[in-house]
Amino acid sequence: MNSTVERLRESLRQIQDQLERDALAAREKFQYRLTNGRVVFEEEARKRGRLLRVRLSVFIRRARPWEVITAPIIYSLIVPFVILDLFVTVYQAICFPIYGLPKVERKKYIAVDRHKLTYLNFMQKLNCVYCGYGNGLLAYVREVAGRTEYYWCPIKHASHLSGRHEQYQNFLEFGDGEAWDEKFIEMKGKARACEDCSGGCH
Hints:
This protein has 202 residues and is mainly alpha-helical. It has helices at 2-29, 43-52, 56-62, 65-76, 78-99, 122-152, 177-193; strands at residues 32-35, 38-41.
């Protein structure tokens, strides 16, 4: 079991390395760079983007009626998103130091940068900012919840579940009461020692 997990981790590392190489190639091709975490486009790329921009009036005319009608429902989620963001951030600020858990860096999960793309009109930029925040927030919350689960209840579920956090693969087997009694304190120590739980703690 452990050798299988290690092979999967190594494959994941290789995939991540390849994705980084692809990202660097894309930056060169589309003429932008990251400076202190900020996207900076070359002037030529900015000009080319402005020429490709679809006017807002055209964008709205192209939209299907139901897309327009349901837009307020989508955007209404900003209220629970912001509340969730606030509560989870306060929770880990108070509780993680008490548990001895490394804090999740929010900025590593939430990226709001698509508004820098000059080929997007105002509405497209607004949509992209919202999606970047919403999806990044949920990834951030999942990581906070995952580290909490690792500390308090590191037991696998009986059924297979999709989309589990990275730490889940290190949890104890469902039904193994002997291991639970024996290793519970040890698992807490592993959760505390993990500086980057997204890379897998073992």
